[in-house]
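The data are set out underneath:

___
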Amino acid sequence: MLRLEKVFQNDDKLFIYFSVILNTFSVLVSLYIFSILENNTIYELTETHLFKSSKYFNLAIIITPLFFIVCIFFTKKKRYELNFISFLKLIILPLIISIVITFSYFFVIKVNFDININFIYLIFLIIFNLFISKRLSNMFYLYLIESNIIQRNIMLIGDFIDIKKIILEKSDKINIYKCCIINDSTDENISAMRNEIKIPCFNKNEDVRSVLEYHSLGQIWILSNTINKTNILLETVLKFSVDILIIDLFSKNTFNDEQLINGKYLFKKFETSKFYGLSLLIKVLIDKIISIVGLIISSPIILISSIFIYFEDGFPILFTQNRTGWDGRRFKIYKLRSLKASTQAKTIQATQNDPRLLRVGKIIRRLSIDELPQLINVLQGDMSIVGPRPHMVEHDIMYSKLFSNFLRRHKANPGLTGWAQVNGLRGATLDPDLMKRRMEHDLWYLNNWSIWLDLYIILKTFYAIFNHKGD
């Protein structure tokens, strides 16, 4: 519902920042508790004035933010580390540096701070609490992995010997090999290969789009050792929306394991979505807030429209249809029905002055009221407030044959509104040239996305609704 698996798709930076905040909070809590318990009992822990009047208050307001800054400075890697070495290097070392800088500052401004045996006890308390924080972070991280949130569903593409090599190697629990396309397979030997590596195997003539959709894939790994082979394998999947990584199985580098697959294989991101990390989390939270507020505000309009639809043409009130979402996954889109039930054709787009339109349908389409139930899709996580407009599955298949880049529109959640819509490309897309222009605007949005661009599109949508035809 929150698309957290997409937030962590390319790195763990957001989780690392969460662990830094947790560790910083542990330092502050340790100082607070010790400042009170040094001369008082546990019953005075809620007496905040004791903390403010203690000698540890000035220490806390300096060392706590300093510890946070130093930890962020030491956070270079994109993957969260579970081992004890990372605890010493990324937590204890920043703590020591923060203490040294703090007391150097006290020395310069001539602040008298009595260091005695109690101060040593304080340091041990801080280290102990940081160790507990690290353990809690590790447990939470493993939980997210087991819950398929910090995981990547991967399709491998390459020769059988290369695919077998990757699968049989020990790897972290984040990379889940869901299926593979074997470049050198035939119909006769594909079953034997499947039995040997124990994952679904397909040959290069398979319907890749169906495979991607069925296995809910988030990444494709191209396994190759020559430029020519890489180009051949890329042709198989280049037009689809899933992130593509090229894995070099033969050029090994043991010095920088951060940029290695399974700790030893170099790779490069050939094409990846910009929608991940903190920016995506902010976008998701904005979507949830706007969808909840929007449903509350628009509920009277939806109710009145539903009544008019019922009295004019009976049930059903809502119209549902399969649409294509992120990474090509299908979902049911909700709309207020604007066409006569007897003439409802799910693969034929409605146009202005369409004889199938209800009288109330003309009004709700003109004002885009029929789109309001899609706020439920946004709340469910299938759509976003801003993104490429979702098309019928049949139209996606048809236009993907005309335009090689068409399916790349699915590198993000589809939206209620989008860059194409606020630039006048609303309504039915019966003309392939018009669909091409909409596609180009969608791809521009995906390549230039930012939270500020989303906010600009949202504001501009209100103007577009009252000056252009509805979808």
The mean pLDDT is 86.
